[in-house]
Amino acid sequence: xxxxxxxxxxxxxxxxxxxxxxxxxxxxxxxxxxxxxxxxxxxxxxxxxxxxxxxxxxxxxxxxxxxxxxxxxxxxxxxxxxxxxxxxxxxxxxxxxxxxxxxxxxxxxxxxxxxxxxxxxxxxxxxxxxxxxxxxxxxxxxxxxxxxxxxxxxxxxxxxxxxxxxxxxxxxxxxxxxxxxxxxxxxxxxxxxxxxxxxxxxxxxxxxxxxxxxxxxxxxxxxxxxxxxxxxxxxxxxxxxxxxxxxxxxx
Length: 251
Prior knowledge:
Blueprint (H helix, E strand, L loop, with lengths): L11 H19 L10 E5 L5 E4 L15 E3 L15 H13 L5 E5 L2 H7 L10 H7 L2 E4 L11 H8 L4 E4 L3 E6 L2 H22 L15 H8 L9 H11 L6
């Protein structure tokens, strides 16, 4: 499948964002969180125009490249001609979060098996692992209202996420918000592992809950864990991992 390069068509800043977003899609596939061609990762293009990048609908996540990503406006209208369709319904959740969160440089949504399983549990995320403590420090929930197609759900979703960076969509899946693509991806890695650990632990004996006092001051603890670099402590290594296996995402 030949996809003409957009490297000389878009700005250097947008191209760098495209490369990072394509990498995020490839990493989601690599770590087993994808759901065929469904779900999305959106990234806001810096500037006052409120333009975004999103996946071409119908491509597997391990096929996505920087040039195949589709540039859209807030209503999911294409802004650069593309041979690929986009999914306005799939952008509903993303666009409404970008609309009220200026800090949402990236919104990442998954339907992973463990994530959906925990989203269906009444107790939601339990404080039973170190990973869960980081999630619980900034976690919100949104009740299931069916496939997210209706505009009238948007204000409830916006109110539920508030200023949190982790959102559990009940009976649906997981969502993370990050200032950067790297931030959203690393948050999802933590969210996903939290859910996997919980499902595994529930198959065993009685669970031990983390002392609630440990949840205090988690923001400062996270800064220490990441050496003050946030997701940038891990993102370059993840990019190197991709480059060793298949660097075609950069095209």
